Amino acid sequence: MYQESALQPYNEHLRQNSQLKQSLFFTTLIFPAEDQFDAFRSSYREVMDISFVDGEAERFPASQMVWDLGRMVFTRTKLPGKGYAHRRKHLNKRALDHWYIDLPFRPSVPDRGHNGAMPELHCLATSLETEVDDDGMLMLFIPYDLFTSTVVLDRMLDVQFEGGLGKLLADYLFLLDRSLPQLQTAEVPHVVEATRSLVAACLAPSRDRLAEAQGPIDATLLGRARRLIDGKLTSPELNSDMLCADLGVSRSRLYRLFEPLGGIASYIRRQRLLRIRAALSDSMDGRSISRIAGQWGFVDASAFSRTFRHEFGISPKEARDIGWASDGFAVARESLERSESPQTLGQVLRMLTA
Question: Is the peptide bond before 107 cis (omega within 30 degrees of 0)?
Fold first, then answer.
């Protein structure tokens, strides 16, 4: 039988160099199948009540990562999806009054865009009951007094963001989800302010607010462009015209987005070279260097060799010989004492300040 005392909702703590000061991870997979839903429900205690929609769950494979950003909290929850519908209800005796934006994602791969889903704004201090059967959920928790006026937020309460701004906010939340693992502590205040500006612009768009949010808007477009490039790197038709058409932006706007990265052509070339370097370092890949290079669009062997050496400082053959690791980084993990850090989402939210 499931015992709440056995639950350690966030028993894995990660601290990577100067990255985010705190991240909490929870998975139901460490529990027996019959206890998984109770464990999931307990992880939300003090925040909302969770109940299974149809009878009892025989199993409930789920996981959640919580990122403490100081003035905001961001969570990414992986859910079992269809057939595992559960009901979420705000608590009657509310200890928390935070606003939060939630964004369900479908299908199982969230970083392919917003998948048609749109964000919604809710408040833990108001009544709400909803059913969830998605593959996962992104949630951004915001202190009640982070915005100078709550009139606009009250008007948008429990309303889905729509149109271009809704899609923009959805794309930004996915971008934030992908970016947080690499975020440095010094960058957190800037990310929080950019996020606040973008949310404000989406809640009540105006010329001034849209100008204020231009930074996160550009970051979102750049993220979408990079995903498009990543999916089409082997295509000989990949160029700025294709990207402009897919993104719905002008050529000058696209060039401005990629200017800090050395330009669009340079960025595409480097991404292709990185894929080649990864293949060359793979001892299981016995293809010839020329064949690997040809896969990524380099058909002139001499020109490819010069380009590769210019980018990495060694020849393709040298890269293969030394088995150069393609990712170039190592992750160090350090366990923290339970007593030093919050153990639940509710505890993290209670510490949230505007």
Answer: yes
Percent of the chain with pLDDT over 70: 77
State phi, psi for 92 to the nearest 5 degrees. -70, -45
Q: Are 272 and 296 in contact (CB under 8 A)?
A: yes
Residue extents of the structural domains in the chain: 4-214, 232-280+282-322
Q: Answer for the pair 135, 105: CB distance below 8 angstroms, yes or no.
A: yes
> Confidence band (pLDDT; 50, 70, 90) for 116?
low
Is the Cβ–Cβ distance between 103 and 119 less than 8 Å?
A: yes
- Give the Cα-Cα-Cα angle 94, 341, 37 (nearest 5 degrees): 55
Closest CA to 72 of 180, 155, 182: 180
Q: How far is CA 19 from CA 69, 330, 334, in A?
A: 11, 14, 12
The alpha carbon of residue 43 and the mean position of all alpha carbons in its chain are separated, in whole angstroms, by 21
User: Is the Cβ–Cβ distance between 154 and 125 less than 8 Å?
Assistant: no
pLDDT in tens, 126-148: 889 999 989 999 999 988 777 65
What SS3 state is found at 216? helix
Query: Per the confidence metrics, is the pTM higher than 0.85?
Result: no
Specify the CATH superfamily of domain 232-280+282-322: Homeodomain-like (1.10.10.60)
**What span, in angstroms and rounded, lies between the C-alpha atoms of 215 and 192?**
12
Long-range CB contacts for residues 110-113, cutoff 8 Å, separation at least 24: 110/135, 110/136, 110/138, 110/174, 110/177, 111/174, 111/177, 111/178, 111/227, 112/227, 113/171, 113/174, 113/224, 113/227
Query: Given the structure tokens 């990207």, which residue do they identify?
Result: 243
**Full DSSP string of 252-299:** HHHHHHHGGGT-HHHHHHHHHHHHHHHHHT-TT----HHHHHHHTT--
**From the CB of residue 184, how many other CB atoms can be counted at a distance below 10 Å?**
12
**Mean pLDDT computed over 222-249:** 85
